[in-house]
Amino acid sequence: MALLEAKNLTKRFGGLVANQDVSIGIEKGSITAVIGPNGAGKTTFFNMITGFYEPDEGEILLNGKSIKKLRPDQIASRGITRTFQNIRLFKEMTALENVMVGVHSRLSAGILGILFNSKRVRQEEERTRVEAYQLMEYVGIAHIANEAAGSLPYGLQRRLEIARAMATNPQIILLDEPAAGMNPRETVEMTDFIRRLKKELDLTIILIEHDMKLVMGLSEYIHVLDYGKKIAEGTPEQIRNNPNVIEAYLGKSASDVS
Ligand SMILES: Nc1ncnc2c1ncn2[C@@H]1O[C@H](COP(=O)(O)OP(=O)(O)OP(=O)(O)O)[C@@H](O)[C@H]1O
């Protein structure tokens, strides 16, 4: 059984069908890419999996149980986390504090704890700080712990967002264009880092990415969307040679998939 199963998902915005009958199964411990031209429906798919949009039709199963009607925080607590295409950090807060927010969402002493048990709250605060710092060390960004998130270069902000997502202790992480805006060196580092997440933490990774070199080099399996419909799935080799995929990218840039 697939760890995560999206079955026949459809999402409409007025007359526009952003996802139509999309089915995607994700195996535990795999790296899967969802690709397609601009506006194909990739982020809409992520938004349904993570509870930001409720599908109009279809079903989403995690370990065989429906998560379709759950809120984003409930889905996060079941181990599915994400990053965003447009980085969403608390820009005025330090990098460490941003990661602490992620850890907090898992540990939180609750409002009664805050009112009546300040010692426990203080201990939890300290534990949160230590955990967040360790996570930053793992991600290789501990040196920027005390810098304001908004002042960091783009590549570091992307890594920081991943560190915050990982702080919720996920089993599945959805990365929406992790290499967007990165220079070639940063892209290679990001590729290595994603591989490490899979290998060392046994994370299941689903990514949206326009950088075909990254997609083809990193993914074990690829699903292709075009105008809201899934037009192909397969290994990188199969996708590279799939006439439907080449056709979908033609007119944009045929060389994108080669
Ligand atoms: N909240 C929304 N309201 C109305 N239309 C939306 C909404 N979200 C997405 N859409 C539309 O749905 C379609 C699919 O958008 P989506 O962002 O999922 O595509 P995408 O494949 O992620 O594109 P890109 O690669 O450009 O990020 C687009 O036509 C978009 O304008």
UniProtKB/TrEMBL annotation:
Q: Return the InterPro entries for the record.
A: AAA+_ATPase (IPR003593), ABC_AA/LPS_Transport (IPR051120), ABC_transporter-like_ATP-bd (IPR003439), BCA_ABC_TP_C (IPR032823), P-loop_NTPase (IPR027417)
Q: Which UniProt keywords apply?
A: ATP-binding, Nucleotide-binding, Transport
Q: Which Pfam family is one of those matched by this entry?
A: ABC_tran
Q: Does the keyword Transport apply?
A: yes
Example GO molecular function term? L-isoleucine transmembrane transporter activity
Stretches assigned to the ABC transporter domain:
4-252
SUPFAM superfamilies assigned to the protein according to its UniProt record, in alphabetical order: P-loop containing nucleoside triphosphate hydrolases
| GO biological process, any | L-valine import across plasma membrane
Q: Which GO terms describe its cellular component?
A: plasma membrane
Cross-referenced PANTHER family = AMINO ACID ABC TRANSPORTER ATP-BINDING PROTEIN, CONSERVED COMPONENT OF ABC TRANSPORTER FOR NATURAL AMINO ACIDS-RELATED
Name listed for the protein in its UniProt record: ABC transporter ATP-binding protein
Q: Which organism is it from?
A: Brevibacillus fortis
